[in-house]
Each structure stands twice: as C-alpha cells, then as structure tokens.
Design brief:
single chain, 6-stranded mixed β-sheet, two-stranded antiparallel ribbon, 16% strand
Length: 220
C-alpha cells in the first residue's frame, strides 16, 4: 500500500512540475502567436465563384488551335546595333522541346532482363498531344512560309501590333502598319483557304503573303 502511495505522489509531483514549466500555453506558443492564429481562424476568406483561370486557358488554346491565327512577335536582340523588329507568325509559337513521343521510360516489374510489359512511360502528353515542356527556343512560320527561330531572344507577341510595337520596332511587312487591323481579316481568310488545301505552315500562302508584302524563300 505504501508503495502505491509513493507512486501516486511521484506522478502528482511530476504533473505539477510539467504544468509549472509550460505555463498557460500548452502548445508552446506566445500570446502574440495565439492572437495571430485567432485572426486566421476568424478570417472571412473569399471563395472564387468564377473560373477566370480556366477561361483564360481555354481562350488561349482556342486561339492556338486556329491555323488562321496571326500573332505579331516583337524581337528585342541583345545586340544594341540591331533594331527591334516584329514579324507575323501563323498559328502559334512552338517550343523546340515539344515532341510527339515520350522521352522517359520506367521499369515497373522486378524481373531480370528486358521484359516489354514491365516498362511504361510516366510522362503524359499535354493538351496539344505533344510531350515535353516549353522552353529553350520557340519557332513559327509567317504567311509566306518563312521560318523564324527565336532562340535566346526576348520576345513579346500580340494578336495585333499595338502602338508600342508600331512605334519602337520595325514591322517586317511591306504595308502601312496602321492599316494592319483593316487587312488582317482578309489575310486570315486567305490563310484559311490555303490551309484547307494544305495544312503545312511551311507552304507559302501566296494570297496572304501578297497582302502583307512578304516574299517567300520557300520553293513551291
């Protein structure tokens, strides 16, 4: 019986010591931290009801999926002796790291040797059906079928040249930049007719190229 009393006394003393050391804050936080947490707990957080992020994504994909889209890309070379310039690109800029096949293979099983069914591709294609991330360099074709590579260059693209592009860069078309908005619709219709015959963007679309005053270096 005395042994039990001694055990109970030890437990009681230990509990008193622990309580005295921890004070009123069992979690080890300071009053300031408790106050900050109370603010967090009482905060009225806004929950989005619109899908703006998704709408932006879809709008971009729709534009990129239209073969008649024209984007005007301004290039700002690092060489101070080269004037910034703007070129029209049909469709979209494509990343040089995009490819139609996976780039990584992983073995799932533990059997010795190469067993085809033990291997799988962990990489998933993007919404465009291609593998790989955007980066390294981007490229595209103008309405005349000319290839443009933007590796290592600062690039800014718009669906129609704005006042900054018109005033600070040389737009590489043989028409008045102020008239581009008026003729762009006709150019897109011409590209649509060309792509209905041949979807290859490297094949010149003569009607669109002529409207923009572009010369083709592609043999037809």
């Amino acid at each position: 019986m005395n042994n039990w009393k001694q055990v109970i006394a030890v437990v009681f003393v230990t509990a008193v010591i622990v309580t005295a050391c921890s004070g009123d804050h069992d979690t080890g936080t300071t009053p300031e931290q408790d106050q900050a947490q109370a603010i967090v707990n009482n905060r009225d957080v806004y929950n989005p009801i619109n899908d703006v992020e998704g709408d932006n994504y879809n709008a971009r994909q729709v534009m990129a999926d239209d073969p008649t889209t024209i984007i005007w890309c301004s290039v700002y070379p690092t060489n101070p002796n080269v004037k910034p310039f703007t070129v029209p690109v049909v469709g979209k800029l494509t990343s040089g790291n995009k490819r139609p096949y996976p780039t990584e293979q992983v073995m799932a099983g533990g059997r010795d040797g190469y067993v085809p069914e033990d291997w799988y591709y962990p990489e998933l294609p993007g919404p465009d059906g291609f593998y790989g991330s955007s980066g390294e360099y981007r490229y595209g074709f103008d309405p005349a079928g000319n290839y443009h590579d933007f590796y290592g260059l600062e690039v800014y693209c718009t669906s129609l040249p704005n006042i900054i592009q018109r005033n600070t860069t040389e737009i590489l078309v043989d028409v008045d930049p102020d008239n581009l908005a008026a003729i762009q619709s006709d150019v897109r219709k011409a590209i649509g007719a060309c792509r209905a015959i041949n979807p290859d963007p490297s094949v010149p679309c003569d009607a669109a190229a002529d409207a923009l005053g572009l010369e083709s270096e592609v043999e037809q």
